Amino acid sequence: MNRRHDPPARPGRLFPLLLALALAAPAAQAWSRQGHELVAELAEADLSPAARDAVRDLLSDEPVPTLAAIAAWADDIRAEGGALGEASKHWHYVNIPGSACDYVPARDCPDGDCIIGAIARQRAILADAGQPRRARTDALKFLVHLVGDAHQPMHAGYPHDRGGNDYQIQYRGKGAPEGEGTNLHRVWDYWLLRSANLDTPTYAARLRRLALPEAPTPDPEHPARDWALESCRLIHAEGLYPSDHDIGDDYLDRHRPLAERRIRLAGARLAALLNEVLDPAR
Question: Which of 9, 59, 132, 257 has its Cβ near the most Cβ atoms within 10 Å?
């Protein structure tokens, strides 16, 4: 994924480069780095003063102590292949069979080893002032990332195609008139946001101006479950699987507003979670 926010390039040159990067990206990297940064920037703007101070304290050893700067950490450690990255590799998603999104914990999240269980555990660690500082900092980093993941529909997708990773797509848009191979998961991870051709600060400011999308209030005891099931239901309700395996820019333009609403909602929900946990006065 792009790690810089370069000035917008001319579309004819931009799309082949973006596609090459997308094809090289690891599978199941929910939203792009930019997508996670957007969730984090939106959330940080809505933190209470006390929660913001707590975040800066927990991140004080980081080169840049902001939520956006650590938003992709959970993907980075997974790619590096260390013990924590390996242990957390199933925490980024939940696979639920069928369009009814009938979640069965023993089947879909055995031993809590999915995004629903991971968010609950990391929230508890962050909320426990008796936990070691390192554990609470890591919990904050995981939450910033995983709350974003829970709002990417393909991260609550079907097991038979691994959340769209095995659903092959030929992209035939501006930069690939002859077609380029990718998959549906990567289209949602990367293409929908990157094809907007906006740098992260500009995109975050635009999303902040959006009205907060209407959504049911999650069960306060199981918010991550409800967020994931909300994502799961969107796959069917919004027709995210194309009628054939070819897509063009019309698919990106049609579904980008949904992706942007999910980012906006993820940012608001992440801020609410952190305010609740880190600001005792609220």
Answer: 59
Domain extents in the chain: 11-278
Domain 11-278 sits in CATH at 1.10.575.10
Three-class DSSP labels, 148-211: HHHCCHHHHCCHHHCCCCCCEEEECCCCCCCCEEEEHHHHHHHHHHHCCCCCHHHHHHHHHCCC
pTM score, two decimals? 0.88
Name beta bridge partners: 169. 182
Which tens digits make up the pLDDT trace of 57-90? 999 999 999 999 999 999 999 999 899 999 999 9
Distance between CA 247 and CA 5 in Å, rounded? 26
**Cβ-based neighbours of 34, under 8 Å, separated by 6 or more:** 1, 2, 5, 193, 194, 200, 203
